[in-house]
Write a structure and sequence with these properties.
With about 70 residues, the chain is mainly α. The chain has one domain. Helices cover about 75% and strands about 0% of the residues.
Length: about 70
């Protein structure tokens, strides 16, 4: 009985891996056929840098206990 369960488990894993591989190949062919998606307006570099610095400061302050619930 254990051998049967093991065989079914391995067979289902192979089927799952095969379906994922075929799905990935299908997505690759779709990407080549489809036109590139238009890029949305990106945030200017200085604003992005400032936002990252503020985010890092907030994360560090929360992690060290200086910010947040006392």
């Amino acid at each position: 009985m254990t051998r049967l369960v093991l065989l079914l488990l391995i067979a289902s894993a192979l089927v799952f891996a095969g379906s994922q591989a075929f799905g990935a190949l299908r997505d690759l062919t779709r990407r080549r056929a489809a036109p590139p998606a238009p890029q949305e307006d990106a945030m200017p570099a200085p604003f992005r840098t400032i936002a990252y610095i503020v985010l890092l400061a907030l994360m560090a302050g929360t992690a060290t206990g200086l910010l947040g619930a006392g």
